[in-house]
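Consortium newsletter contribution from the modelling node. Members have asked for a concrete example of what our holo predictions look like. Here is one, prepared for the FE2/S2 (inorganic) cluster complex that several groups have been discussing at recent meetings.
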Amino acid sequence: MSEDLMRYAARMDIRKMGAIMPRRMAHIAQGAPVPPKLDYAANLTAKALHPACQKLTVAEVIEREAGAKSFVLRAKEGCDLARFRAGQFLSFSLEIGGSTVTRAYSLCCPPSWAKQGQYMITVKPSEDGFAGNWICANWTVGTEATASAPLGEFSYTRLRDARHILGVCGGSGVTPFYAMACALAEGSEDFSLTLLYGSRDRESILLGAELAALEKRCERFRLVNVLEDEDGYIDTELLKKYLPEEDCSLFVCGPAAMMRAMEAAIAPLGLPERRIRRKTYGVTEAALETDWPREAAGKTFTLTVKMRDEVFTIPCAAGESVLVAMERAGLEPPSRCRSGECGWCRSRLAAGTVYVPARTEHRRKADLAYGYIHPCCSFPTSDLTLCVGCE
Ligand code: FES
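And here is the predicted structure:
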């Protein structure tokens, strides 16, 4: 095309563009003065699958081993509950002592329960626990609770995971595996699960009888109880013993201390990283991480938080996460998983430095480059300025 012709074509396009606006304005003027329709089937389905929050009521409390309790939660009459995949969790919003905090609890029931309008979670109090102890002491039949939609990637996905899963858990870390075993037994999942379940002694095996019954009912599920006082800890040798020769995914769930020990036990297996899934529950204590900068010990830093057009200046101890410091000050920052995975708490660090344990480092490369942090797993190593909820 000659240059003249190209200039002519460009002019024609501009003329055509000029004619579009009057036509568009005429169409708008003819339109009905009502808001656009939002109740299309796709929108309604998306809302049902991913509700912003769910209002639940405690329908039943079941006493479990070692002081733990299961809470059966029902939807309000006539309301649906969001469906979930075995291994996912709900994040609860709790008002405790004047602060609003969130806590994540794995769904501990067959996925089919959601269709019947109910969920179950199992909570175990502990000596130094906070929210779990409060729930066990305060929730009774009739208590109302607010939870997120089901969240999390600690679940079997056919495209990503091997058809055989070797599960490793300790304490309450058994709850997502319990949901997986239920899903296998009811036939809604088609993988096989061998579960190495570490407990202190026989009396502290959470959901022990229920797991044994599931193993009897379902040949895809195999349970191996590992008792500290009889068998010792789950180590590399034990993992090798139960690791099948065929392709296998390793799912590990437990408290931070166990997860640290498991990293050392897993390394010699040489499994590709894509075959390992981790879920840490409970509080991450920076001081227990081997690479935490010891010079920060005992210090309290100043945290300046810019949130919702306001500026707050609060203290933040070196050993506590930035999220906990904000919650302690009553600020109600956003959060869900509290383990660095979901990105719900993602905020921009405008000034200062933080320590992030390698185990909880799930930020995207762009976030690392542009100074975004996950306050739930970030610990101050200097005074900080944080922008919460701003891009
Ligand atoms: S709450 Fe999920 S990443 Fe912080």
